[in-house]
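dumping the sequnces here before i forget
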Amino acid sequence: MDEIVAEFVKRTILKIPMAEMTTILKAWDFLSENQLQTINFRKRKESLVHDLVMLCEEKHASVNDAALLDIIYTQFHQHQKIWDVFQMTKEPGEDIDLFDMKQFKSSFKKILQRALKNVSVTFRDTEENAVWIRIAWGTQYKKPNQYKPTYVVYYSQTPYVFISSSRLRSSIPLLGQALTVASKHHRIVKMDFRSRYLDSLKAIVFKQYNQTFETHNASTPLQERNLELDINMDSRIIHENIIEKDRVQRVTQEIFGDSPQPRLEFAQYKLETKFKSDLNRGILAERKEPLRCLVKFSSPNLLEALKSLAPAGIADAPLSPLLTCIPQKRMNYFKIKDK
Amino acid sequence: MELANSLSQEGRPKGGVLAHLERLETKSRKKFEESQGAESDLGSKIRKLRSLRDKLKAEVQRRQARAEASVEPDQTFEVSEQEVLETKLENVKSILQAYRFTGLSGKLTSRGVCVSISTAFEGNLLDSYFVDIVIQKPLRIHHHSIPVFIPLEEIAAKHLQTNIQHFLFSLCEYLNAYSGRKYQADGLQKDFAAFLAGPLQRNSLCNLLSFTYKAELSGQSFPFCARLLYKDITRTLPTDVTVTYQGMDALSTSWEEQRASHENLFCTKPLHHVFASFARREEKLDMNLVY
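..and the predicted 3d for all of it:
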């Protein structure tokens, strides 16, 4: 193991929190059971890491092995990255996609390596026929920088790709090209959809949330819903208000569904509209140019917060379609112009 | 007055003091007797009323007992009507629930209809998928649980507005075929892992399977690599199969025959059936070796 690799291995292991150390090392499956048994996991972290690096040295860990460990760490800590969603399109009338994972991987790697002499690409297959790809970028003259990798998550035979946001803007076009060619698509476009919660992006983009359907077999918990109504209501509300509360609940349920909302942290609206005012014209109203303004909604769970606005009485039901269209349009970055 | 009378003649008491005392005594006795009589009257009245009350109580109890005894026959008559209705309702509900075994069933919703597609393969009930359709002009899919790699938009674009039956049957076809292929691939991984020399390579649609397996012939074992392509995703059998030998030397004729026959098997039979037949052949071989 040369110095660079040893350093890379050490820094990757050092990132792992003590509580997750055994789980992640087992998932890595590089060090054998016997080797792991020789380690005292109760030592201080520095000395533990040193021992582990020694074991890796014994087994001649390569850059690829360390990169695989990095992927596993990132899979456990997905929310440390911000994920962008990209959409790929095919030409209409193309044959059925016979996706071959091996072919995809080799094609993807070849394209990147042909363009950049120095690039390291690592793959890890995951469930649901998906693959995590880690790319460390170098240049013609510099070795790949292992500490600023880009991660790509791709579910086979779907048009969507999840890519971790990186400062290295220049790498995006090449990455896009490699993805489209390897997956036999024609174009790739960045969607205005971004979040730390990869699972939520996936749930929205693949429409996997709100999966309660009315069937004769389901025991629709209508009674539960009524109870919810009661719990939310103030006992001092009298009959007239009950009707309105009922309507609000019904409209909210129609728009948001019954199940928990996927987690997004923000929605951003860039307004480029003319200033409109009911009051007597002020300075702003007389401008012909649009008023540029940015409105950003932040929340630990934006969609749940929006769902609770009308029942809490803070907003009218139904909410503005600009807010409720986020899951359907798969967007949380909007540019609003005058029509 | 009597005293007055008794005094009236010559103003002397009739019969004297003793007679007067006698008269007072009888008077008081009469009064006493009267009151006694009255008392006994009251008493007898009380006794009469008491006995009447007891009689009434007894009657009430008897009637209650009779009513309870006869309540059942009366109420069972009413309950049986209700029970009949309830059993009818349960039956209808069960029939509606059982419709899912036909593979395609639906339930009316406030907006339209929610269609359930229950997939099956070789008599095994597999996953169910749902499409919630809003009945408006034009028909609109409100939400669904169809996986993203099934070409729902294409099928909807072709048939949803013009022929909803065709839309549903077409969707059923795609989903049943997908479920069937998935069932075969899962079966291979689960039940015949011992035959595989390496992981089964598959994709989301389960329309490309690639694996290396151990083929046996007269005690010898060779690794064969199979590649199954399902170009028609409305079918559960592959359209193209290639079985190749991974070694360097050429295959002997008998092995070449094996290879070709395996190719044919994979084309015509579901995966798990093919491997089950391999397993049976091995068993026969083992039996031969034992004896």
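Chain B has six helices and seven strands.
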